[in-house]
Design brief:
This protein has 3 helices and 16 strands. It has 246 residues and is of the alpha+beta class. A hairpin with a 5-residue loop joins strand 6 and strand 7.
């Protein structure tokens, strides 16, 4: 046997064996790393917090990597890419509220800003909302509680998708208007019930609404510091006011 051939075969076996050992050592070192690690600072564009089965519980992201609506683990509605902040998910992997924020000044010097934190009704949309919105100084900030239908939001989304596929015309327009009605077949789809905050007229206010979303009691201190309490009927007309004569 040629000694050179024997040396070549030995070197090949040695190289393969050494590579295998190094790979095993690297994998073992990685596996044996402690689960709890400490970092002084991390730059990241998105973090997914998941359950052991992979279901999402929270997504923290920048704008481009932000997630769109999710229902039981499946995307629906619109795509992501426009909700920087934190989105929460329930035990079924369905979106359950979140915290989003934005703010920028345009080239003309005017600005728009908002911070929005909401919690969703099960299988539905937001019913508790803490919101600040500002259109170049025309601002509102407050806490709103709402009622929503028990109809799952995915049914609304599927109906909307079907309507959007219709050819443009009167039938499509009518179907879209019907879909967005606050009351459908005698059932309220969404209605505010309580608002407390500072409105765009610079008044501090507490507004109470009936189950149809109509304001019935308004307690406020206006921009001039004048207090007022009003009771309204279901047509929106003030039927009683304190102090009287204002």
């Amino acid at each position: 046997m040629d000694t050179r051939d024997s040396d070549v075969r030995f070197l090949k076996r040695y190289a393969i064996g050494s590579t295998t050992v190094i790979v095993l050592m690297a994998v073992t070192a990685f596996v044996r790393q402690p689960q709890n690690q400490r970092f002084g600072e991390i730059d990241v564009e998105r973090i997914n917090i998941v359950e052991p089965d992979g279901k999402l519980r929270m997504v923290i992201s920048n704008r481009p990597r932000s997630i769109g609506p999710i229902y039981k683990g499946k995307p629906f509605g619109y795509k992501g890419g426009n909700r920087p902040g934190i989105i929460f998910f329930n035990d079924e992997g369905t979106e359950n509220g979140g915290l989003t924020l934005r703010g920028a000044r345009a080239s003309d010097g005017k600005y728009q800003a908002s911070t929005h934190m909401s919690f969703d009704q099960f299988d539905q949309d937001q019913i508790v909302v803490l919101n600040y919105s500002d259109d170049n100084g025309n601002r509102q900030a407050g806490l709103t509680f709402s009622d929503r239908t028990d109809r799952p939001i995915i049914e609304f989304a599927n109906e909307l998708d079907s309507i959007q596929k219709l050819p443009d015309g009167p039938a499509k327009t009518a179907a879209m208007q019907q879909l967005r009605q606050p009351i459908r077949n005698g059932v309220v789809q969404a209605a505010p019930r309580v608002f407390i905050g500072r409105d765009r007229a610079k008044a501090s206010a507490l507004r109470l609404f009936d189950p149809m979303g109509r304001p019935r009691v308004v307690l406020q201190v206006d921009s001039l510091g004048v207090p007022r309490l009003e009771f309204l009927n279901d047509s929106g007309r003030v039927v009683s006011r304190l102090p009287q004569g204002q």
